[in-house]
Write the structure tokens for this entry.
Amino acid sequence: MELYKPAGSSAHPAGTGVGRAAAGLVPTMPVAGAKTLVAPAKLTLSLRVTGTRPDGYHLIDSEMVTINLFDTLTFEPGRGIATVDNVVGAQGLYEMPESAANLVHQALVRVGRDVAVRLVKTIPIGAGLGGGSADAAAVLRWAGRTEIATAARLGSDVPFCVSGGRARVTGVGEVVEPLEFQDRRFVLLIPPIVVDTGSVYKMWDSLAWTGGGVRTANGSGNGPGVAGRVARGGNDLEAPAVAAAPELARWRDALGDLTGRSPRLAGSGSTWFVEGEPDQLGIGDRTFLVLRGARAPLVAVRTVPPMPLVPSAES
């Protein structure tokens, strides 16, 4: 199995509901010339839900890395967002939001840029790999608007995705503490399932307050809870995700049986992953896993260092 990357990109890149106007928006500015940036997926290696704010947002303590599975965005004079379907495993862009609602459009509005974007989607939608957040972060890097406050307004994963690499992420995603880069290899299993992050957190809330084995918002619970049962590198959202989408469990077990490892869930899912090279895992000749007639790609990836920040869209 080869490392999956869009044609023309490298494993270590060199540089790579819109409503009424909101606070923080800037006047629209023109652009000159064309520029292409890559938007690497994020892989959540561990995730603890540490509490819930009064406004309902969940507090986390997580380790995230970026991997060499990229979307590509080309910015040039004009208007509109053209999306090219290059999603890994030929899964297609089902559930892709309309341009008025997706994060690329929201990011452009936020930074006040009027530009045409060609978005080549390789990161699957609803897979827990942060594709939309990565795309929004690429817009911010292109525009030279990489401040945390701007990124956080677009989504909880966007602040990390602005620079990527490896980091501890806390708060509601807005506190990003860079960690030393580690060159690591993983194999992803990407089931043909779209998992809604909001639904998973709602399930977490439900299980937390009904004694369903998930830690409550104040850190207590009935029994050890997910956080007490799993080893370092665990994911508090795994049990809620499986409760919300029970078919996830079958794919997890199939990957475990295939590799002899214990798969971990990427964020809120649907991607499962194990660490190691395909040959080490005994799956060097496998590119897909088939389960009950459904096919899920097996994708070998590696971590990538932090992204260089683009000084300005005008430079």
